[in-house]
Amino acid sequence: MVAIPLRADFDARQLRLIAKRAKDGPQARRLLALAAIYDGASRTEASTIGGVTLQVVRDWVLRFNARGPEGLINGKAPGKPSRLTDTHRTALAQAIEAGPTPAIDGVVRWRLIDLCRWIWDEFGVRIAKPTLSRELRAMGYRKLSARPRHHAQPRARSRRSKKLPCRLGGARAPARYRSRGYRGVVR
């Protein structure tokens, strides 16, 4: 088997300097193994320096030849691709902006579970609630929830009927604020 030659525009000294300045430890280790190859070491010796097998050294050589020293930096794994395409996202945004039709959709406001069902009905794409939540956040939507209100609470409750601590002047602050060292009360 013939060994793949390294690029001619670098030498061992340059790779060692790049490895010395590298912020990524694995990249520096790979550069030092390739510098040994430039110095005339065998691929087996380079694999010992790098702590890997011959096949991995071959992969490093291919990556280095294609992209240079930056090709030896660990990249982030791409992960599983999204189930929603751009056309799905566009239709979803239009449905959210238009709001549900109670007679057709059976709801008066969209919840995540309702949107999951709508996506299934429209496109046949099954998507979980947490995944849809992540997708909606990436699209710029936020979950809004109204402040809970007791069913027996009057609609327009005035601010003066709420129990607030006494501020400047007037009556003395209730004992519950004095005993705990509440700082908002001026005596």
Task: List the main descriptive attributes of the protein structure presented here.
0% strand; 187 residues; 9 helices; mainly alpha; disordered C terminus; 48% helix; elongated
Report on this structure.
The chain is mainly alpha-helical. Among the domains are: 61 residues, no CATH class; 53 residues, no CATH class. Helices cover 48% and strands 0% of the residues. Helix 1 packs antiparallel against helix 2 and helix 2 packs antiparallel against helix 3. The termini are far apart.
Secondary-structure blueprint of this entry?
Layout: H1 12-21, H2 25-38, H3 43-50, H4 54-67, H5 86-98, H6 102-105, H7 112-123, H8 129-138, H9 175-179
Helix proportion range: 40-55%
Strand content: under 5%
For the biggest sheet, the summary is:
none
Low confidence ranges: 178-187
- Which term fits the overall shape? elongated
Summarize the structure.
By secondary structure, the chain is mainly α. It is built from 9 helices and no strands.
